[in-house]
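REVIEWER CHECKLIST
Item 1: Sequence provided? yes
Item 2: Single chain? yes
Item 3: Sequence as submitted:
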Amino acid sequence: MRRYKRTGVLAVAITAIFLAGLVSGCGGGVNDSGSIAFYSLRDGNFEIYVMDADGSNQRRLTSNNVYDWYPNWSPDGTKIIYTSGIQDDHDIYIMNADGSDKRLFIDSDFAEGDPDWSPDGSKIVFVSNRDGDPDIYVINADGTNLTKLTSNNANDYLPTWSPDGNKIAYHTDVDGNFEIYVMDADGSNQTRLTWNAGFDLSPAWSPDGTKIAFCSEQDGNYEVYVMNADGRDQKRLTKNEYRDMKVDWSASNNKIVFSSDRDGNMEIYSMKPDGSKQERLTNNEAEDYWPAWSE
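Item 4: Structure as written out by the authors:
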């Protein structure tokens, strides 16, 4: 689904899959708990894993001959919503946080993905190409009331709810280059937040709703940045010659987790919101992507 229109961009995780879109030392976070879901190639196929916040207790939740990827947590941390299938034909599934009771949530002949639960658990936002281009949709958590939020000839990806449930951030190339946008939860007031020469991707709200972390190639290669929720005061948090991708925040607001290939292959890392104390959480010869922190 996610097909970025630039040769070689995000050649591993994001480009390889939606060809699109949306990093052992074990670094523990002070006062941080919960679990981190991610997907990995360590067992030969994209599967979903979970680990403790310090990188310990890594365990596999899915086992299929298709790709399982892009996990996100339910607000109460008891379930994980994710995408499963092959590159051009995948659907949305839900499972318990321990990997049990997997069930199909959205089944179609199209590519469905990028699911994210609303903070109150009542709705799920996701991306579908059922009308041709990847657009953003919302549906009730019981599968009713499907509503299309974006409608353009562009590629809209990685919608994510604000903590109060009133807004949705996402990235789109509606203006020719992938930039971060925000809209009201009903799809109105679509507003551009970033204006950079390079791609700006995968927004993630801080738990207090005042900041948005994202990855950007505005300085030449993909790094993690943070900005105010209105797009102002953009600050670079990582600085290296490799790719730092897909970010998420801990519920305590004390940590940001992200993917990076700085040590040779994609692994999961964490850091403080000011970019300090960058620590590696996973360490294996395969690729680990797409960290998502439980509440």
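Item 5: Key structural point noted by reviewer: The first strand starts at residue 35 and ends at 40.
Item 6: Recommendation: ____
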